[in-house]
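Same chain as my last thread, 276 residues:
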Amino acid sequence: MIFETHPLTPPLSEHVESIFYFKNFKPDHSIERVVPTGHVFIIFELDGFKRHTYDNKTLKTNGDFCNVWISGMHKNYLSISAHQNSEMLVIQFKTIGAYPFFKFPIQNLNDKVINAEDIFGNDILELRHQILKRNKVSEKFKLTREWLIKNYDPKKIPHTSIVHILNLLKTKSERENTSIIDAYSKSQKHLINQFKTYFGLTPKVFHRIFRFNDLLLQIHQKQNLDWSQIAYEFGYSDQSHFIKEFKAFSGFNPQEFIKSGFQNNEPNFFPLDKKG
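reply #2:
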């Protein structure tokens, strides 16, 4: 498998988490569950395979995607297809970073996977066409970088006051949420509206997502798990609250999660039909 990432410099490094490319990916499953991470993605399919999203309960197909598509901010897990010999290029925006490129409220993308041409028109399909024509990965990255710069509007950068609050939510406990939000110079309603416009979700939902992803990372690294201790460390009010949150974001209760061995996988992707 080939996997490469593009080194980022300002201004893109301030808004884009990663631009990466992979080829000849051969997963041992065909359906995987993705937990919300607090990022918006633009995904270029370069292999001719049609991708699918599935109903989380029935696993019946509820969406088909090819060429280029956008995955917005998600509050719940997403079930997607995985394909043999995949080749893709992905733009992953930082939580604070998508608005200057999309130029409309990011909440419009919440819980959606949509065709990218619905937002960017034929321009993004032409970009994909040009990426396909280039043999060198560095040239594919160059085209992607140039397209992003062309679509970048520095006047759409979020105010430092709301970026500061978002950063605090990543590091502080839930018990401190009220004081963090109360310290905002304007009303709570104004803050929520700003978050929805620039980032997509509300402060409370972002904090839950950040906390759950930190929790998954710790589970991934731990040899011995004490669920009661983990629930306490991450500030859940009680064991019931912890289990409810775990299932809401992953689709599994903690015991099911461990029984399936998902703690050994990448922290955000869980195969649902793995063989063997």
